[in-house]
TrEMBL record:
<dbReference type="InterPro" id="IPR015424">
    <property type="entry name" value="PyrdxlP-dep_Trfase"/>
</dbReference>
<dbReference type="InterPro" id="IPR015422">
    <property type="entry name" value="PyrdxlP-dep_Trfase_small"/>
</dbReference>
<keyword id="KW-0663">Pyridoxal phosphate</keyword>
<dbReference type="InterPro" id="IPR016454">
    <property type="entry name" value="Cysteine_dSase"/>
</dbReference>
<dbReference type="Pfam" id="PF00266">
    <property type="entry name" value="Aminotran_5"/>
</dbReference>
<feature type="domain" description="Aminotransferase class V">
    <location>
        <begin position="2"/>
        <end position="364"/>
    </location>
</feature>
<dbReference type="InterPro" id="IPR015421">
    <property type="entry name" value="PyrdxlP-dep_Trfase_major"/>
</dbReference>
<dbReference type="InterPro" id="IPR000192">
    <property type="entry name" value="Aminotrans_V_dom"/>
</dbReference>
<protein>
    <submittedName>
        <fullName>IscS subfamily cysteine desulfurase</fullName>
    </submittedName>
</protein>
Length: 377
């Protein structure tokens, strides 16, 4: 099977697996226990926190480990808005956030918050003037993703941060798809808070982190949470965290080389699509994009059909959106970039990773050509 769905999840690297087993056997203690076995685990946790904070240019006192990107987004936003409720009830986000945030903001609307969903252009970027116009004295927080998980478009984070800072609005950014792929540095980006996840970068599933600038106040979503400085209750997954941080260090260390390699694969795929004259449109931003994600619209064919046919030929790709067999929902991102509902269902996402080769891409393109041809006949 050829795996071209690395943006959905990645296999664990050897190094991350080794770090996991080592920590799980040698540092198995509960990091909250006061005996030496607990203290050893707490020491490892402390080192992991320092190392991860360094990788994102942050202060270790603002880093909290969680069960992944979904929980990170939920807890970061809820904890910060709860502490700033006195300022007002207005929140800003975009039409193309990950489902974890989209559903959270929908829920918050039912709880009395007013939410502005910023539109995006045909490449998936927000409009800075629209952002600035949306800010009111009651705006508490804006949650704007670093990159979209379906089409890979990155947002002009520094420009966004400048505008939000000018008006004293807290800036949370979902960096789940970008951390380890392009630079994520809280100071350079000017963000107050971010979410990251381990399983997108060859670490274990069920582990992630939130960073909240220690100057930003937050109120825990949990009563009397004693772990993670009160941010999140529950025994801390120290082996998972040690493995996550190992994966993160590797991803950041090889970031530049890996970026160039993945971008080459992406450009190669696009040029071969054009050469073969496949009935496929390239989605996303021509310049501001992740190197590992390529969003495609397969004309006249539902994305789910294309995906299932690719699977039949031994290639794993994604439709980008959660769907049930035989019932494809239109991609929210596609609708937001201006597609009609039928067109929005024609979406597939190809995502490259550590082990992707040009031969695998050639095979994908041959299969796509066959599927399009079959459909015509
Ligand atoms: C942009 C983005 N945010 C959040 C998540 C959720 O992360 P996790 O799977 O770790 O809960 C994902 C995962 O697909 C994602 O792509």
């Amino acid at each position: 099977m050829i795996y071209l769905d690395y943006a959905a999840t990645t296999p664990m690297s050897e190094e991350a697996l080794t770090a996991y087993t080592k920590a799980a056997s040698s540092y198995f203690g509960n990091s909250s226990s006061l005996h030496d076995i607990g203290s050893h685990a707490a020491q490892l946790l402390h080192i992991c926190r320092q190392q991860l904070a360094e990788l994102i240019g942050g202060d270790e006192r603002g880093l909290y480990f969680t069960s992944g990107g979904t929980e990170s987004n939920l807890l970061a936003v809820r904890s910060m808005i709860e502490a700033h409720r006195h300022k007002g009830n207005h929140l800003i986000t975009t039409a193309t956030e990950h489902a974890s945030l989209y559903h959270l903001f929908q829920q918050l609307e039912t709880e009395g918050y007013e939410v502005t969903y910023l539109s995006v252009d045909r490449f998936g970027q927000i409009d800075l003037a629209e952002l600035e116009n949306a800010i009111t004295p009651q705006t508490i927080l804006a949650s704007i993703q670093h990159a979209n998980s379906e089409i890979g478009t990155t947002q002009p984070i520094q420009e966004i941060a400048k505008r939000l800072r000018k008006h004293g609005v807290i800036f949370h950014s979902d960096c789940v798809q970008t951390f380890g792929k392009i630079q994520v540095d809280v100071q350079k980006m000017g963000i107050d808070s971010l979410s990251i996840s381990s399983h997108k970068i060859y670490g274990p599933k069920g582990v992630g982190a939130v960073y909240i600038d220690p100057r930003i106040k937050w109120t825990s979503c949990f009563l009397q949470a004693t772990h993670e400085f009160g941010f999140r209750p529950g025994t801390v997954n120290v082996p998972g965290i040690a493995s996550f941080v190992t994966a993160a260090q590797q991803a950041c260390e090889h970031l530049a080389d890996e970026h160039a390699r993945l971008e080459h694969l992406r450009q190669y795929t696009i040029s071969r699509i054009h050469e073969k004259r496949l009935p496929v449109a390239i989605e996303g931003h021509p310049d501001a994009h992740l190197p590992n994600i390529l969003g495609l619209s397969v004309q006249g064919m539902e994305g789910q059909y294309a995906m299932l046919e690719c699977n039949r030929y031994g290639i794993a790709i994604s439709t980008g959106s959660a769907c049930q067999v035989g019932k494809q929902a239109p991609s929210r991102t596609m609708i937001a970039i201006g597609k009609e509902e039928d067109e929005a269902k024609q979406f597939v996402r190809i995502s490259f990773g550590k082990w992707t080769t040009l031969n695998e891409i050639d095979r994908l393109l041959t299969v796509l050509e066959t599927i399009c041809q079959q459909r015509k006949e």
